[in-house]
Each structure stands twice: as structure tokens, then as C-alpha cells.
Amino acid sequence: MTANVAGYLLQLLAGRWLGVAGYSEFASLLAVQLLCAVPALAMQNVVAREVVLGADLRAVRSMQWRCAALVAAVAVVLVPVVAGVLHVGVWAAAAALGAAPALVVLSGEQGILQGGNHFRALATVLAMAGTARVAPALVALALGGGATGALWAGAAGIVCAAIIAGRIARSTARAHDLGAETARSTPAGSGAQSGELPGAPTHTGAGGIDSALSAEATPDRGRSAQTGAGRSKRGPAAAGARRAIGVLPVLRAVQVQAALMALSSVDLIVVRIVLDDVDASRYSLGTIATKIAFWLPQAVGVVLYPRMAQPAHSARAIRDALSVLSVIGVVAVIGAALAAPLAPLFAGQDYAPIQGMLWLFALHGAILAVLQGALLSAIAVERTALAAVTWIGLALEVTLMLTFARTIGSLITTAVSVAAVTTVIVAVVVLRTAARGTAPGSAPTVTSGTAS
Asked: Is residue 3 a contact partner of residue 130, using CB atoms and an 8 Å limit?
């Protein structure tokens, strides 16, 4: 929540300080940066899944750094392309793309914490990363650094956040391993003296998963912890050695996240092509409501994702996620409609023409949040065929916008309509498949000696 609030504050203040004519460049570059964060989002999901299944953390981090190097190489190639398409300077484009490798590393550490059910440490990292990304950018804007200076300052903050996140993840893992080793060395029957309740679940130590927290989140994990006693004797390295981790699983997850992020951000790029600078800035500021509705329920996916990765709990987790996301979306749309008259007070009277459409922007984000929940389930079980529906929706949206949309109203209506149809199709397939007790797609189920 802290990270999201910081991001919204950055965009509101940028809208004021850069003016109605200059904000669209900043918003478009932020959209590019969001697209460049796709490998990072995929990295977190893949790492969390692998940790749940018992992967060795050294292998996870090795894969993480290989992916960061690949992302850095691609970012260098894309700098002149982005500068030409968006009509911005090379340094501005480089600033937007420069944070991508650090985001991959940061998200990998977040995935380790998420997969290990260390949600308190994960919340600390998320809040710290959001602040580190936004605070330097705000300082740069306040000092007159413009969009380019703000993006470079934000990139520097992300690098620092990645370093700190790595230290937090390692210290959390060490503390957990120490607790697990102490639990394993406690003689049988001495639980009462040590403060443990008889029959309490044992720490497996595999993949750095905190078995007590995992058992609380997923009731039948206690049985897994007990049957994992033999595995724990061999240690995490032996358990993780049975799972080879390559870049390919990340690439498969990337195409799912890329489809979602492109569908949620492509309108900010198209408006630079079909609208003048003033209307493009107004549309861009309206998308703050979209982002609020989209990212507000992010914690739902974070908490339920480890359950989605466990076959015994996947179907229930998917149903729970889509239900909660839908309810939160309805609340967000109603909130946007009620708060619309206040928008010009925060952003300035230049943005008054869009206040009546803020509920539509919020509806767009709420629909995309449900779509994200459905697609997360595909990544959790390594079945990503449903992403094809999102890619088709993206192509349709861009075609319709470039061909017919010439006003703010027609652009947001097109975005909402395409997102709604795409989400309904994906959600129906996911729910029907979950009802049959299987996951979406056609790839075989991943099995592991450490999976429950």
C-alpha cells in the first residue's frame, strides 16, 4: 500500500509541476518503464513458485542474475526505438529503460520472500522499494530536473532498493534456517519444555519455507511438513538439487505478464499518437484512477499465489482470488465516482474536463485486476496458454484506437470494452478448469520431491 500511494503521489505532483502540456511525456515514459518491469514481475512469480517447490536459493539467484543481464542487453537496444516512437530525447528514453535490470534483481528477492511465506519481510521490502523509487524522483522534479531527471533519480533509488532487499532476504533466510535447525535438533517429546505444542508442524527447511506460516495459510500443509521430515535430513541443497532452474520458465511467465502490462499501458502510448498534448496529458492523469483500481488489490495475489502453486489448494485459491478482486473492483469504481468532483482540486482546473469519466478509468483498472488474478494462476502452475487471449485483446485494442478513437471518451471506452471481453473469456476458462480440479492450459503438472 505504501508503494502504491507513493506512486500515485508522484504522478499527481508531476501533473502539477510539469504542466498540462508536459505531463504526457512523463506519463508515456512511465508506461514504457512499466512495460520494462514485465520481466521483473515474471521473475517474482517464477521465483516464488520455485521456492514453494523446494528450489535451492543459490540456483534461484544465479538464474535471477542471468535474466538481469539479458534484460540489460535488450534495454540498450530499445533506447533509440523508444526515443523515436515517443518523440523524446535519448537520455529520457535511457532513463525509463535504465531501471529494468535492477527491477529484475529486486523482484527476484521479493519472490524468495513471497515463496517462503515471509510476508512481513516482504511487506517491508515492498514499502522500502516504493519509497526508494519515488522519493528521489520527487526531489528531482522539485529541483526542476524535469521528466528525465526524475526518471534517472528513480532508477538510482531502485538500484539501492535491490541491494537492501537482497540483504533482507538473506538475513530472513538465515534466521529461518537457524530456527528450523533448532527445531530439528530438539529431542522428541521435549516440545512442552521448549514452548512448542505437541503435534505442532515441523519446519522442513526446504526452499526456505516457513512451515508454520504455510500450515496456517494452507491447512493440509501440516501433513506435508510431517512427511517432509526425511527430506529435511538431507537439507535444502539436496532437496533443491532435484529442480534445475533455467531462464526458460521466466520467459514463459514474461509473455503472460507482458500481455497484461501491455494491455494496461498501451493506451498511454497510443494517446501520444492520436491526441494533442493537452488532451493526452488529461487522459494520462485520468489513468491514475486506473492504476489505483489495478494495483489496490495487489496483496490478494501476493498472499494467495503460493497456494495457487500447490495443486491441492490451487482451485480454491483461484476462486477466492477472483471473488475478492471483483468485490474490491466494485468498491473502487464507486469510490472514483464519488471522489470525481475533488480531482481538479488536487490536479488543477486544467483537468476538470475528465472528472466525469474517472469512474470509467477506475472500471478499466478494476477489470484488469481481475484479469491479472486469473493469469497469475496460469503462471503458478506453469500453464500459460491463456495469455494468447490477452495478446489478441491487445492487438484488437490498438487497432480500434488507431482507427476510430480520436477523443478521450472514445479511447477509454475502447480500453474498457476490450479489457472486459478479454477478462470474461479468461475468467470463464479458469473457473471452469478449476471446477474440474485442474489448472488452465495443457502443459504437464510439475512434480517435485518437495511439493506438497
From this structure: yes
Q: How far is CA 180 from CA 195, 229, 233, 297, 451, in A?
A: 15, 11, 11, 32, 18
Per-residue model confidence (pLDDT) at position 28? 77
Q: Report the C-alpha gap between 374 and 434 in whole angstroms.
A: 11
Instruction: Check if the beta carbon of residue 366 is closer than 8 Å to that of residue 359.
Output: no
Q: Model confidence over 326-373: pLDDT tens digits?
A: 999 999 999 999 988 887 777 667 678 888 899 999 999 999 999 999
Helix (H) or strand (E) holding 67: helix 57-86
254 vs 120, higher pLDDT: 120
The residue assigned the cell 471473488 is 323
CA distances from 167 to 1, 125, 132, 298 (A): 22, 10, 15, 24
| In the predicted structure, residue 126 carries a pLDDT above the cut 70 | yes
- Alpha helices for 116-247 (secondary structure H): 119-142, 146-185, 191-194, 211-217, 221-227, 229-240
Residues 6 or more apart whose Cβ sits within 8 Å of residue 407: 275, 279
Among 58, 71, 69, residue whose Cα is nearest residue 245: 58
- DSSP element (H, E) containing 399: helix 387-404
Shortest CA distance to 252 belongs to which of 66, 380, 374? 380
Q: What is the grid cell recorded at 240?
A: 533443491
Q: Is 390 exposed, middle or buried (0-12, 13-18, 19+ CB in 10 A)?
A: buried
pLDDT at 96 (0 to 100): 86
What is the C-alpha to C-alpha distance for residues 288 and 319, in angstroms, rounded to an integer? 28
Q: Report the C-alpha gap between 274 and 266 in whole angstroms.
A: 12
Alpha-carbon distance of 18 to 28, in angstroms, equals: 13
User: Distance (Å, rounded) from C-alpha 416 to C-alpha 362?
Assistant: 10
Sole residue written with cell 491487445: 394
Q: What angle do CA 339, 341, 344 make, to 5 degrees?
A: 110
Give the number of other Cβ atoms within 10 Å of residue 302's Cβ. Answer: 19
Alpha-carbon torsion, ordered 127, 130, 132, 134, to 10 deg = -140
Alpha helices in 241-313 (DSSP H): 248-274, 277-295, 298-308
Q: How far apart are CA 302 and CA 279, in angstroms?
A: 35
